[in-house]
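User: Predict the complex with glyoxylic acid.
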Amino acid sequence: MSFRIVVTGKIPNAGLDLLRNAGFSPIAWNNDQPMTRSELLNAVVSADALITLITEKVDEELLVAAGSQLRAVCNVAVGFNNIDISACTARGVRVTNTPGVLTDATADIAMALILMVTRRLGEGERVIRSEDAWQWGMHYMLGAGIQKRQLGIIGMGAIGAATARRAKAFGMSVAYSSRRDVTGEIDRGLDAKHLSLDDLLLTSDIVSIHCPSNESTHHLIGAEQLRKMKKSAFLINTARGPIVDEQALVEALEAGEIAGAGLDVFEFEPKVNFGLLNRQNVVLIPHLGSATAETRAAMATLAASNAIAIANNQHPITPVN
Ligand code: GLV
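Assistant: Here is the predicted structure with glyoxylic acid placed in the model:
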């Protein structure tokens, strides 16, 4: 088929097989290391559709390099802060993402971070691995229980709600702040209160971020917001790094303004602020939210299905623009 699909990062075979079975001959990068920028700008030339990963920045320069025949950018991620949506829209390029298929995997990681940071699991594991002497003790390495504590969700979309359901099962109460009140749309059993961001920060024991990363959420959590949190509260981020001012977070942790943080994402990923590295009350994991084999296969399949739909002049399944 003459519709040229360029897959700019290594994706699971399930996605490539789907494209091939539909009669396409995808040109796919087959290396776990992302392409360099110049490799990427070369690879996209004359593409009709791109299947991209979050490591690829899709901006005006890349759209120009691809050429005016480009019709689709299908991101293999629910977040699309790597893509300049208005530049794509202005050129008539459809953008798609992969919502739904990674909801549970990401909520699992948010819940894991909540448990890890409140119960000091990273710290405990480091003690064992260090082979330093340790002894069970009544007062040894006490953490913070989460039962009857309030989880404050910032951004009550699918992943926020799935995290809330998990937290509820662990005995937490749920509050959320969102651009709009979605109380009528989420499970009634969650009994979630809609609060302003300030009230959520003031009253929550754990604050977990689940909103998209864009200009309006850049540094949504900075020095002022961290100061509003309880000294005993923890911050969890499985969304995107730039939503948190990472330097302000380091300073808040140093000043004891919050009790700890669990982070799957970083402001300048893959770089991690040096001030986080030596803190015991911080759990740091390398952007693993959707990292299960099944989830990644489902993401690749959904992105491929979107590209096929656009190639066939049908509506994409999960459009962004
Ligand atoms: C991963 O970070 C995603 O947005 O899907």
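The mean pLDDT is 97.
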